[in-house]
Amino acid sequence: MTTDSKNSRRDFMKKGATLLGAGALMSMVDPAIRVGAWAAGSDAPEKTEVKIGFIPLTDCASVVIASVMGFDKKYGIKIVPSKEASWAGVRDKLVNGELDASHVLYGLIYGVQLGIGGPKKDMSVLMSINNNGQAISLSNQLKTKGAVDGTSLAALIKKEPREYIFAQTFPTGTHAMWLYYWLASYGINPFSDVKNITVPPPQMIANMRVGNMDGFCVGEPWNARAIRDNVGFTAVTSQDIWTNHPEKVLGTTAEFVQKYPNTARAMIMAMLDASKYIDEMKNRSQVAKIIAEKSYVNTDFDSIEDRMMGQYDNGNGKKWQDANYMKFYADGAVNFPYLSDGMWFLTQHKRWGLLKEDPDYLAVAKKVNQIELYKQAATQTKTPIPKDVMRTSKLMDGSVWDGKNPKAYAASFKIKA
Fold first, then answer.
1. Which end of the chain lies in a sparser environment, N or C, as judged by fewer CB atoms within 10 Å?
2. How high is the mean pLDDT of the chain?
């Protein structure tokens, strides 16, 4: 066939596809996929296999379950979960395209967007993965000295000055912000009164065991595991710092969304179905069993299941059923990428000197959080959509965050950088 013939045939095929329209194109897609397809045009995923990163934490469950239980197949994609060693590794692999998307710290995505905590690159939050379910653990050595909560810890630091070391998981991440917020609420400056270091989540226990730190903030199951391994106890849960706080997100680059919008939408839909499944309490034991496996979190089943079920034991004589346990769906309230959630992390980045100037908080959030794409996926999966892109929350110190005046909010704290 001559080059001219090939070109003519190509032109004919292009014109034919245009004339036939989305209906004819969709007829070529597997019926099982079409059932779950977004119905506003030819929405077949541009990329059918997606590599989604995760860190070994309980809240990676929706990535794992979407893959293991086959929720991805319904939307024409195959999710390949990729276990990563650290949040810095996740950041680098997202930025260079080794990962298509990842279970990732909310604040990490915003940090990369603004060039703090790593290279600057336009990023996207596709959805929120979970609320609640993190904690701050203190060492048993602190407990023997009577430091069992914020008040007694502040008193000990004042009474017995030394270098107290606290670990978080990434400089711009959620755990760093919960830790700093909690310490500062008790008058402890997280930068001048104590030393803070960065440690990957699965390495927290080993570091505390050998005395490298006095406390840490991390996701489950590592707080429960600290108690089980008799190296520490839970001083406070993250839901006590901010009830129903934003935590991990499904994050990717803006470039990926622009290049593969249908694939990005399919990932959200698969993750929403998985989130819905996980939030049915009858399924949680099975979910805990799956994610405890070596390929995923690689820890004992009990350390995951108890707190996933809201059954808390702080390792210091208190046991309770927590109504604000880790949630993955909650009728869609968990998953909506509220602009105010993203903006809050920026206010804390400014508070602690990670940002030197106030950014245009709302503009950044609108650019990063893929509200419209999320709404399309939510509509298709019959996930309720909140009426407002902002929400109002009260934190542990009584401060109210509603996103209305972020610059004033960031400047309002007594203890800041």
1. N
2. 92
